[in-house]
Design brief:
- The chain is mainly alpha-helical and 86 residues long.
- It has one domain (3-11, 22-83).
- It contains six helices and no strands.
- Helix 2 (22-31) packs across helix 3 (34-44).
- The longest helix is centred in the N-terminal third of the chain and has 13 residues, at 3-15.
- The radius of gyration is 12 Å and the shape is globular.
- The two termini are 21 Å apart.
- This is MbcA/ParS/Xre antitoxin family protein.
- Residues 50-84 form the Antitoxin Xre/MbcA/ParS-like toxin-binding domain.
């Protein structure tokens, strides 16, 4: 199974609980993708702003906001998010 298919299956799990609140809309606007936003919100919660601007070891020291600037970074971010225990 491809990484993209795994991501789609994984991210879809979190969409039902991702309500249309102002906070969630803001997160979606920052990351530019509703599925990525839903997964971040589930794992990180309301501390997502701080997390998005923190250097993350699992992203080779990059900040998540830096990852959303390129396709390769987005792929890396998705793979990292799928590895966080639920």
């Amino acid at each position: 199974m491809s990484i993209q298919k795994k991501w789609e299956d994984y991210a879809n799990i979190f969409l039902d609980d991702f309500e249309d609140s102002e906070e969630n809309k803001e997160l979606e606007n920052i990351v530019g993708d509703k599925k990525i936003a839903a997964v971040i919100k589930f794992h990180i919660g309301s501390h997502y702003k701080e997390w998005l601007h923190s250097n993350i070891d699992a992203l080779n020291g990059k900040k998540p906001v830096e990852c959303i600037e390129s396709e390769e970074g987005i792929k890396q971010l998705k793979e990292m998010l799928m590895k966080i225990p639920c």
